[in-house]
Amino acid sequence: MPSLRTVATKKNLSLTAIAAATAMIAACGSSNDDSAPPQTSTTPPSVTMAGVVAASGFVPGSATDPTIKAGYYAGAMVCIDANNNGKCDASENPVTTDAKGAFSLSAAAVGPLLADIGTSATNTATGNKVASRLVLRAVAAQVTEQGAAVVISPLSSDVARAMEANSSDYPTEKANLAARLGVPAANVLGDASTVSDAAAQSAMLFESNALTNRFTYAITKLDRGDLYPDALAVAGGDPGLKGLAGVTAATATTAADTRAPITFLQSQQAAFNIEGIPRYDHVFIIMLENKATSSILNSPFAPKINGYLQAGNQLTSYFATGNPSEPNYTAIGGADDFGITDDSQWNCDATGANAPQDLPLPDNTQPGLAKSPFAANCTQASGVNHNIVGKPNLFTALSSMGLNWRTYSESMNPGQDARIDSVGDAAVTATDNVYAPGTVGGNAAAIGTPGLVLPLPGQLYRTKHHPGMAYQNVRSAPEFKFSNRTMGGGQWDANLKNSTDYAIPANYDYDQLGTDLASGHVGAINFLVPDQCDDMHGVTVTGTLPGSATAIKASDCSSVANNVPNATGGAIITRGDNYVDKIVKQIQASPLWKNRQKNVAIVLMFDEGNATAGFNSCCGWNPGNSTVANPLKKNADGTWAVDTTVHGYTSGNRGHGQSVFGILSNQPNAPTGIKDSDAYSHFSFNRTLQDMFQLADPAVDSSYMNRSKYTEKFIAANILNLPEYAGSADTHFDSVRPTNHAFVAPASYTQKQSADVSTTAQVGPDASQTNVWALHK
Fold first, then answer.
1. 646: number of CA atoms within 13 Å, CB side?
2. Mean pLDDT taken over the chain
3. Domains, the chain, with CATH or none
């Protein structure tokens, strides 16, 4: 498979030749707008190409999935782009769409059409002017096929882009798009406004909205003259670091920057491969707990996870952000822990401007929450605010783009409020899991207690394990309740119906993940959060044997249960290993995963490691546990200044060692067995997700949330406001980058490690430099 850059270059030449030939026979344009002045031509026209420029419009505020309306672009220019520069030049005799998005263009022969949609155009779906220039197109084969009813749309544009990326033809890519959306091929490039099937129309509009975002970004890159490819996707390292003061010599790029200004066709491909991260439709992130690399990698207690690591790709030097859990989840969700260093509930020390806006608070005074463990008042000696107000995060970023998200959590009490921890219920019971000798590396310590009856313990579901819970704008979002969902497979699932503590809603779905996988109605980003028995965290569960008054603990839900002498917690690892296997197989059995026209990934990761000394973290954290770190804020004039308003900020982002990170792709031709040993962190993963779903712009540092903007170049440019990085011995290790495997370590460079990793530090580059997210070999 040729690279996108190679394909784009070849296609740029070939399509330019085609367009130039077409231009030689192009005649004149006319418009359906009666007010437009007549246009003349010296060449007698012989073909009329007519149709509409279709639009989709995202309407914010939905309490469910995003609302996307169908419409048209009024006031857009349509032409045959003879010089292939991504715009309708005056010499190309463009016509202007009327109030209903219609156009009629005459030429000597059929050619590929381009819609140049400027900021004077109106999207009739929303009634708003177009905020930023957008270019859409339709290939000549589509124009011939649709005749006098051509629909230029984001979907037609993606067919054109895919033909170029894959060196393919129109029938193939049209069929691929139809399969991708589950829409009949006869309708997929039609006018969504006229599609009568509600499911098909919804799929077309949802994809059109996402593609509109991408193609708008593509033209932004073209119009401002971006270099191709993005700097952090260049093999070897960021070319912009060459000769830059404050960058460590050992890792600074020394090669000349050979990039050139991006072309129109390159911009279309680049918008789907930001910083070397290809576009995925859905990513499922399975979050596990408290196990470092040394506890999981090659462990006989986790054979299934290790099997998936070998079957997919790995980040082998992936660092946590802090200890305990909550700071890590908060950092994954928003690229900062804001000084949080504990697991306290989200209203702790949240006063003044940070006071919770969740009114009323979900405590036990509220209807249906008589046993809510939520404390309405929470103050601690540290005084660190746990309610993050007004800060960007993945959840609100997705929602603002008309994309959706899900957090699937296991063992929530039926119908409970997602903002509170679950409670125990003696009426809900399960028997102890029993493992036969040999199923966990032959360790008999994993044998459970047959017949042991276990009541449902409290705090199986914990809000501290929700990556969006600390953010006020996430909890206040209209889609919050809808987007927090159940995940089945828990030990007590079968008897949750016996609950005496919560009134179970009618038709309650104990496994919305399974339901959504069957229907395909999952999110773009899906966090899958097992309960504290299945995530390797562990809780103490005490039960009794029938006919016995002696209480004993469950064998596999606590790392050091009293009938499990194995101090390493082999039983709890095996339990988590089995649960991960169940979830991965459930995803891989779904129609969604089997639809190869969709790009779907599963991530297996842990919140933190277990290091207590040495290099505990990397990549945007607070190096050396500095006492001078502060977040930055952007001033109106574009400069950056220190934000001193976050109390206790220097306590956070301290790091807690390394943990395994695996990636599985549904693409059969994706490379496997790749091990990227460059240093990454939760901030790096957050930046990767922003690139994957086009939530940020590499040319605009402020578009990246919180500490995910802390690239080497950004730190060097703002070093006076980031004193914690002054004098860094390794600015590459201390900075953030996407997990794209683009950095090639110099031969003499020794990779840093945390104290919990006993393997020999790698010297020089990885043997392979293949992107762990690549879709093709």
1. 24
2. 89
3. 4-32+45-223 (no CATH), 280-418+460-536+574-619+646-734 (3.40.720)
